[in-house]
Structure formats: structure tokens, C-alpha cells
Amino acid sequence: MVACNPIRYPLQGVATLPNTTDRLTEPERAAWGGYLRSHAAIVRQLDATLVEAHGLPLTSFEVLARLAQQDEGKQRMSDLAQSVWLSRSGVTRLVDRLERDGLVERQACDSDARGAFAVITDAGRARLETARRTHVSDVRERFLSRFDADEQAQLAAFWDRLDS
pLDDT by residue (tens digit) across 92-128? Predict the structure, then answer.
């Protein structure tokens, strides 16, 4: 998945690192590499569980979950792409598949002829609710159970720091 938010330079509010070489130090490499390996492994495992149990890839689950959280279960395609970290063309292809499966439908945008909404269907909501139990259990087992409540709060603060 590719983030849609570009990195802004200079990073404000981030401690300046004393090492200005073009190579990561060992602690930097361990922190960065550990994050990348962990993210890739967990996402791969969560995806495999959802596909095996529900025939629903993690990206499809995320789209259904985002839509279900919206008023009237709909979101503009461009906003949906940004919220699930996909390109516009990537979310278009994904919504095409979900539409073929009857989980999502497209709705024209009255205020913008070029715009469209993705709308979760009743079948999409039912599939999401069934898959959500599996997903939450899997997230707890594979990720959250490795940290106590204080560590989870600390991790959340770290992620917030990166998201600003």
C-alpha cells in the first residue's frame, strides 16, 4: 500500500538527529527495518486469514469498513482512495470487484458530474460484520496481545507523532 500523504520537509517537531551521514546507524536500521518487517508480516497474515475465512482480502475489508462508518454508508471515490491508502485507479479497480460481488454499488454525485460515490450494500454490511469478528480477533492475537495497555497507548502516541 502506498500512502497518499506526501512527506513534508522539513519535518517540524522532530528531534534533529546528530548523525548526518547517508547511512542509517545500527539502532536506526533496527528500528526502521523492524517496523517494515513487522508491518509486512502482520498485513500478510491478516489478509490470509480474511481470505481463507471469508474470501475477503484485507483491502476489501478496509473499504467496506470505511464505507460502513460514513453517513448513509457512502463516500466519494477520491476520499475513499485517500482513506485506505490506495491510488484513485487502485480504489476504482477494487470497487469494481466489490461491485461485481454485490458488496458495493456506485452512485452518481449530483453536485459533480465527474464524481461518484461508493456505497456499501446490505450484502456488504453483512459480509463486513461476519468478517469483522475474525479480523478483530486476528488483530488482537497477532498484534495487540504482544503489548500491555500502557504499551498500546505508547504505540498509539508514536503513530500519532508520525501522522502529523
Answer: 999 999 999 999 999 987 776 667 899 999 999 999 9
Name residues whose C-beta falls within 8 Å of residue 104's C-beta, 6 or more positions apart in sequence: 63, 64, 67, 95, 98, 118, 119, 120, 121, 124
- Taken in order 59, 138, 42, 39, the sign of the CA dihedral is positive
Please name the fold of domain 33-148: Arc Repressor Mutant, subunit A (1.10.10)
Grid cell 517494515 is found at 36
pTM of the model: 0.80
Distance, C-alpha 134 to centroid of its chain: 17
Phi-psi bin for 104: left (phi > 0), alpha (psi -120 to 50), beta?
beta
